[in-house]
Amino acid sequence: MLNIIIFGAPGSGKGTQSEKLIEHYKLFHISTGDVLRDHIRRGTDLGMTARAFMDQGQLIPDELMIDILASVLDDHHEEAQNGVIFDGFPRTIAQAEALETMLAERGTAVHHVVGLEVPDEELVDRLVKRGLISGRSDDNEETIKKRIEVYHNLTAPLKEFYQERGLYRFIQGTGTIDGIFDEIKKALD
Ligand code: B4P
Hints:
Blueprint: E1 4-8, H1 14-25, E2 28-31, H2 32-42, H3 45-55, H4 62-75, E3 84-87, H5 93-105, E4 112-117, H6 120-134, H7 141-155, H8 158-164, E5 168-172, H9 177-188
Parallel strand pairs: 1-3, 1-4, 2-3, 4-5
Bound molecules: BIS(adenosine)-5'-tetraphosphate.
BIS(adenosine)-5'-tetraphosphate (B4P) binds next to helix 1, helix 2, helix 3, helix 6 and helix 9.
């Protein structure tokens, strides 16, 4: 079993590299951003709550996010037998601690944290470009800058959290998509 966290700022390529990891390692993919966007599309109560936070570039509250993740894990127990790619979770220390407990209760753990590091200017550039085609309401310059600020305040401290546990694998997140994926494979194998 291989459980990987793909970690980085908004626009660092988490979703992009997750697609390649799923194919290569046959893992089950959990993207909390996709889970939330699916609720928004279906107009659920959770979707309405999530949208308000996402449009402001803010994180969804931890208690809510942790419950969502636990239920996704339980609902997909069978598909997750080979392992899971956690894409966009955890984003806070509280979420990371909750994940440790959740996985321990299920007899497993996080094996690697793939940290995609990209300079802020390039993040803004990528997301502004994506906004032109994605139609995502959080891909406009003002919200992107807020998301990056929230990342530095709340999410970046997780790097140290996982370095202390010997799990953090630094990956230069700039360059070609295939070149970055080669570096990830080297770090994991
Ligand atoms: P997410 O959906 O997780 O989105 P993201 O961080 O914006 O994107 P990602 O890093 O996956 O970038 P991508 O590969 O697409 O989160 C959205 C929102 O949901 C959050 O702001 C928050 O409100 C909420 N949320 C989600 N999880 C949460 C949690 N756990 N707790 C609380 N709130 C949560 O790449 C971006 C662009 O770059 C793409 O256009 C791609 O083509 C391009 N790109 C990728 N690699 C490239 C490369 N090497 N070179 C050039 N361009 C590249």
